C-alpha cells in the first residue's frame, strides 16, 4: 500500500515485525518496508475479515 494513500486516509500503521528491502520496483533503487497497515473489511455483517498491507513510500518511483 502506498504511504501517500495511508497518509491521505489517515490510516493507522504499526512497525513491521520483520522489516525488509525491496529492490525490484525500479532498477538501482532500494525501498525499505518498515510499516504495516491493518484494514478491516466485511461483506454485510456476516463475513468480517481483515487484510494486512505492507506500507511502501512510492512517491519517487515511476512504474510503467
What's a quick, concise take on this entry?
By secondary structure, this protein is mainly β.
Structural features:
64 residues; mainly beta; 3-stranded antiparallel sheet; 3 strands; elongated
Molecular structure report:
The protein is built from 1 helix and 3 strands. It has 64 residues and is mainly beta. It has a 3-stranded antiparallel β-sheet, with no helix packed on it. The chain starts with a helix and ends in a 9-residue tail after the last strand. The mean pLDDT is 87.
Distance between the termini: 17 Å
- The coarse silhouette is elongated
Q: How many separate structural domains?
A: 1
Rg from C-alpha positions? Answer: 14 Å
- Percent of residues in helices: under 10%
Based on helices, strands and strand pairing, what is the structural class? mainly beta
Task: Outline the low-pLDDT stretches.
Answer: none
Overall pLDDT: 87
The major pleated sheet works out as: 3 strands, antiparallel
Helix-strand layout with pairing:
Blueprint: H1 3-8, E1 14-26, E2 29-43, E3 47-55
Antiparallel strand pairs: 1-2, 2-3
Amino acid at each position: 500500500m502506498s504511504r501517500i494513500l495511508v497518509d491521505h486516509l489517515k490510516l493507522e500503521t504499526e512497525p513491521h515485525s520483520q522489516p525488509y528491502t525491496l529492490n525490484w520496483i525500479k532498477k538501482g533503487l532500494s525501498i525499505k518496508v518498515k510499516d504495516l497497515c491493518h484494514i478491516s473489511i466485511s461483506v454485510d455483517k456476516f463475513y468480517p475479515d481483515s487484510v494486512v498491507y505492507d506500507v511502501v513510500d512510492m512517491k519517487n518511483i515511476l512504474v510503467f
